[in-house]
């Protein structure tokens, strides 16, 4: 993805003064999804200092879905942990990259890596207990890993409750995540309703992400009216939230509001072209009777990571449509 014209001044400024660039500056580029700009800035800094954990960590947040780049950053992360074992960023990045490998490599690969994932994510939180993203990733490990591999709802809840003394609003978000895992949707909604970000933009952004997760859980329940209200709240607060636009589109499709569903999912893909939304978009266009656009969407869906069930269905629909 090439940086947009809007991002070029940011990139030029960063490359001109890379030694002074901060996590906030990396985050600004990440928020704009200017991943090429993040990589360019990171490489510049790492050339000057191969152990620059901030640059490596920021770059690593862009490569989970790109096996080639992920492999390069993985080698650097392993070297960083070896050279700087007290770096929470290096520990977290390595655990996260192992997690991405486990997710894409099947059960055998996952079982080989699960111990390393837990080790490095746990060490990151121990080194930087105030960092929300690091704590959240460790919590997700505890919620998603099987018990025999170290998963534990109790430990996931402890990560949330122990965070209250550090950051009470985000502690509620972590508690909401546990409630979502337990399918306790009213309890999750209550925790998020208690978070009032006010003028705190970063807290508002984290809250919107948590609300989007709630919306997807409500969609799966299915509680379509509640899900639609949740997604509408997020896109109203943050019109750039691609996942919420996609979630809203999925709800509208379930409600047979096809034209609105298409508009919402197309908006999601405008905001994030890499979003895995083409299969659902294909369903919407097929329901509308637009054969050409349905075929195009299903073909694009099959060119991306897709569940076996969805991939089989997309191929069947393409056969039916003559695509």
From TrEMBL:
Keyword Repeat set for record: yes
Cleavable signal peptide: 1-19
UniProt superkingdom: Bacteria
TPR repeats: 208-241, 242-275
Keyword terms, alphabetized: Repeat, Signal, TPR repeat
InterPro entries for this protein: TPR-like_helical_dom_sf, TPR_2, TPR_rpt, Ycf3
Pfam families with a match to the protein in the record: TPR_16 (PF13432), TPR_2 (PF07719)
Name of protein: Tetratricopeptide repeat protein
Originating organism: Inhella crocodyli
């Amino acid at each position: 993805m090439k940086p947009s014209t809007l991002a070029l001044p940011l990139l030029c400024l960063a490359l001109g003064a890379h030694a002074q660039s901060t996590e906030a500056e990396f985050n600004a580029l990440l928020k704009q999804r200017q991943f090429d700009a993040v990589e360019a800035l990171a490489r510049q800094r790492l050339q000057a200092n191969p152990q620059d954990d901030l640059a490596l960590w920021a770059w690593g947040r862009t490569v989970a879905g790109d096996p080639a780049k992920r492999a390069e950053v993985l080698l650097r992360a392993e070297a960083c942990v070896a050279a700087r074992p007290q770096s929470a960023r290096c520990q977290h990045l390595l655990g996260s990259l192992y997690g991405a490998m486990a997710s894409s490599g099947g059960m055998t690969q996952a079982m080989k890596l699960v111990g390393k994932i837990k080790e490095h994510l746990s060490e990151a939180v121990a080194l930087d207990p105030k960092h929300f993203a690091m704590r959240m990733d460790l919590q997700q490990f505890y919620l998603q890993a099987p018990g025999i591999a170290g998963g534990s709802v109790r430990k996931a809840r402890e990560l949330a409750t122990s965070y209250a003394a550090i950051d009470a609003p985000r502690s509620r978000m972590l508690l909401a995540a546990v409630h979502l895992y337990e399918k306790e949707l009213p309890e999750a909604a209550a925790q998020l309703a208690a978070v009032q970000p006010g003028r705190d933009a970063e807290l508002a952004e984290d809250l919107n992400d948590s609300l989007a997760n709630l919306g997807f859980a409500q969609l799966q329940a299915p509680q379509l009216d509640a899900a639609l209200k949740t997604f509408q709240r997020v896109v109203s607060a943050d019109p750039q939230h691609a996942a919420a636009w996609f979630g809203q589109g999925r709800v509208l499709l379930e409600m047979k509001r096809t034209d609105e569903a298409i508009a919402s999912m197309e908006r999601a893909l405008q905001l994030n072209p890499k979003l895995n939304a083409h299969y659902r978009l294909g369903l919407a266009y097929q329901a509308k009777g637009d054969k050409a656009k349905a075929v195009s969407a299903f073909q694009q869906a099959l060119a991306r990571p897709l569940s076996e069930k969805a991939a089989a269905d997309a191929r069947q629909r393409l056969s039916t449509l003559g695509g």
